Give the backbone structure.
Amino acid sequence: MGFPADKRQTDVQLPDGSLLIFRAQDSNGRQVVLQLSALPAPPAADANAGSQGGNAQGGNAQAADKKPPAVLTLRLAYVQDPKNPDVFRIKEGSF
């Protein structure tokens, strides 16, 4: 089972900064999506606070220069009917 070339996308940068690795639709209209998103890591606490060890400046300079890694999310979705997704929708004016 393959995906027709005209129903397939790969390696697309999306406006929100995420990467659409793969999206395709088969001949029955079912869709598969693989998307990678990266969020910056929360700021790390200063590991050198109150530290007596390290170099002459009072800490480990190499550790202070390292940025924490980004938080990565890889989303895989299989959608049976992309035109009518099976998600709950709130009717307009319900609230």
User: Anything to note?
Assistant: The beta strands are 8-13, 19-25, 31-39, 71-79. The first helix runs from residue 61 to 65.
